[in-house]
Amino acid sequence: MSTDNTIAAGRRVLDIEIDAMRDLRDGLGEDFAAAVAHLKASKGRAILAGVGKSGHVARKIAATLASTGTPSLYVHPTEASHGDMGMITPDDTVIALSRSGETNELADMIGYCRRFDVPLMAITAKAGSTLARSANFPLIIPDAPEACAETRAPTTSTTLQIAMGDALAVALLEAKGFTAKDFKTYHPGGALGASLATVSDLMHSGDAVPLVDSDTPMSEALIIMSEKGFGCVGVMDGGGFAGIITDGDLRRHMDGNLTTKTAKAIMTANPKTSTPSELAADALRRMTAEPPKVMQLFVLDGNAPVGILHLHDCLRAGLA
Q: How much is the pTM?
């Protein structure tokens, strides 16, 4: 197979799936809105179920919902028929995936939902199928051709299932008012957790914060700078934060009288600062990308310093 033919085959697959995705988007309507409203009001969990490739997609949707504030888990339909059905309560909502809507392994789960009045949501391409007709909330995806026409291997259909799951999860988190701070609670580790860390998560506080009064002699301010180890000291004036003294300020005022001057005479007034709720990634960007570039930011609550953030804190957290 030539390179050109290989590229053409790949593009053909994507064209088929893109067309199906457009149909899925255009077909979203009141059924979708009702499903989101139900999940928002639900006091239970979302129970995802599917077999084969649909089962893999169901696991992915369960993980996405769980990470965005909706308690969710995957239950294999076969295992459910052999005891795991007891994991499902009437407060839960079963979300079953099947392109045909006639997957045999789902029959017992459908029957269980009917018997115990468990809400059932279906993601299927067949509106007249057993699954769709049994569902309280049928979510019908386009009955589009699979990208692999010869084998009809699940390709387009699983892409549509994933997209429907993503649409449910994002619409639901927006309906709930789920924020980046909430999201971080479920993603404390790795690069994603680092990108969602706030300044308050990384800053030093309490006695670690280097502070002096504005009338403090530089001989004493230098001792504080050395002891705290941040390469700077914050200057307080009238009970509020007034400025910062850094190594650069010392170099600019280096003369025989430096130690006799007051902190106010040496400080840089109105330096860059941060707040506890600012994303640490945004604070890092302001430290390194916006002139003047700085190594540290004092963290203020109003005009009161509550912490200090150093560039190295951001690097250790994996923000670089």
A: 0.65
